[in-house]
Design brief:
Length: 231
Amino acid sequence: MSVSPSSPAPTENPPAATEDLAWRKHIPALAAAVAGIREASDAWDAVSDSFCDTDGWPVDEQGYEDAKVKRDAEAWRHVEVFLDHGPEVLAGVRATARSADYAEGPLSEDLRWLRGIDATLEHAGQLQREWDQILALMDASMPGSRQLYEGRTKEERNADGWHYADELAIRGPALVRAAEHLVRRADAEQSAHTTRARAALARSASGLRGTMPASPPAPSAPGAPVPGRSR
């Protein structure tokens, strides 16, 4: 299977010690973010039709817009979690996965789904940086204007970010599954290594006990007759 140009080429990595997988601590946050984006999307799907006629045109435009604003805001909150935790987990997965994982096995499909997630995270991060710059310009050039315009600019950012939230709802689960699989495998390999090491140590200790030299005979008691000598 070919690898995306944006993805580093897989290498044959030795079994990773579990203590080296520092990125594992970020996995629960990503799993929660995936669930959060899905919940925001499902909540929108549940009410969006109620604001529209049978042809799909809004009949309650204000209600439709308010519900969409709420969806975008909730989804973006979880996109920010991906921006904080996703790059480190993605790098860890790619550093830990082996060449064989890309070709076949339980990881292969999830690794394929990770193609393009770099671009999604980069574009979402750029959107966040642009919004931060806008706020900084407001504070610098129009003191006091932030309170007037921040809410509206935030809504615009969230609306633009919905596309990236939707992408992460598709590719994010693959990242979480791949990360969890690699961590479990590393734990299992580390446990097996520890078991083998203990068994080898036990065999070594047993062998040393079996070859210990015999103790020298105890000296004869004083006055005892010497064997082989006549009186």
